[in-house]
Amino acid sequence: MASSRLTVPHHVAIVMDGNGRWASQRFLPRIAGHKQGVDSLNRCVRACLERGIGVLTVFAFSSENWNRPPEEVSGLMELLALSLSREVPSLNAQGVRIHFVGARQRLSEKVQAGLAQAELSTAGNQRLIFNVCFNYGGRWDIAQAAHKLASRGEAITELSLDRAMAMAHVPDPDLLIRTGGELRLSNFLLWQAAYSELHFSSKLWPEFDDAALDEAIAFFNTRERRFGQTSAQVSGHDKNQDARVV
Known about the structure:
This protein is α/β, with parallel strands linked by helices. Helices cover 42% and strands 15% of the residues.
């Protein structure tokens, strides 16, 4: 478990990358890597609970992932349905509240019903908010928020857009982790990650463990969170500090 002397980020977001490469390295089908990735996600949820992290958001299936081979997409949909039936009771017992974030129109009625039931059954839990971004894209999120405001005749401002985002129920991520060695956001939380600290791990997602999470938290503790202010303002040493944040 992470040292109690470290500041634990309230909201951690993760791009879970590397399932396919993990499987390929072992001469296994890609879906085997995704199944292993579910086990890694279960470990990560437990680790977040143990460390007192309040919100965990993961990128499970992007709006661009529909372009993958049909058999892989089909396998991912089946894995989602299976995971809902197997994992939700355990998550519920641990006090985890589940939110599925993303467009649902292209999902089967069975899967849509499973998502709704998982959210309903865990709605009263408060230990950890667990956002699963499925069929999600950062550009889609901004566009849907703007469309929502326009349809209501509301002015489009930073504040109104923020409130119309699909993740408006939680504060923005403090720490965004990407596994698999890639150094990009890949259309994940483009609006919400404006001030997130970014940590890139070389570990493939199935290999991401408690120690890797602690490494990310330790990295977070090396960062100075200024939000447009100066270092002196943040530390409270600037006698002439301006209260405005730019």
